[in-house]
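Exam revision sheet. Question 4 asks you to relate a sequence to its structure. Input first:
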Amino acid sequence: MEDFIPYNRWLHQHDEGIRQEYPDRPTEAMAQEMGVNYYTVSRRATRLDVGKSAAFMHTSWQKGSAKKGGWKKTSEREKVCEAKDKYLQEHFATTKNETLAKHFGVDVKTIRRWARRLGLVKSEAFMQEARDRGRRKSYYTPEQIAYRNRRIAEVYPDGDEEALQRLSEELGIGLGCIKALAHRIGLKHNRIEKYTPQFIADLADYFPTHTDKECTDHFGIKKTQVQNLARKYGWKKTHSHLRSVYDSNVKAALNGKRKRSAC
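Answer key, structure tokens:
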């Protein structure tokens, strides 16, 4: 088994061969020899600014013309093109691109290109049918959705964390999903103030001269809650407290540096 060659390495090791052979050789034959896709060779040649020679293109055109019996008269070719355009105009709006591609013996990209040239688009009925085919069926029945929305409407607006948690267990969905569904049906949560005036006053006195962690440990609330309340009421740490914290951090850093240097 040959060693795997990363794509970036392949690009550079075949550049010189592409420059020399691409103008006068079929791209498919080169792709097979290199062990890559036809379009990989074609894209790399474009990046290297290498194209097919005029002699090669003329020879390819002659071979293709011979296979098809040649275009003896321009009018015959025009008739074929007109028939193709007419068929597309009649069927493109209501037919899958894959079906049209099989009919003409081309790829889907060619069908799209022909349709753009003719200004054709799919009908709204066809697009709606395609969306319906691709839409995943809902896990819930309409009755279950109605019940879920009704329960959210009953509990969510005035519910505290405990009530919302019970609702989450009842409906079998997370709190984040409940909030998203409530927002979708136009409900807002009426936040209940759970801190008493005395609690706020005590925290306001304690906060300026203590760290957030000390406030958390002393009052039994989360650090984020302490910071949210500080932002809400505009509490600030005192200058002396901030200086004390700074000196403590510097001292700890110097001690750690001395220990590392001693080792």
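Marking note for examiners. The mean pLDDT is 80.
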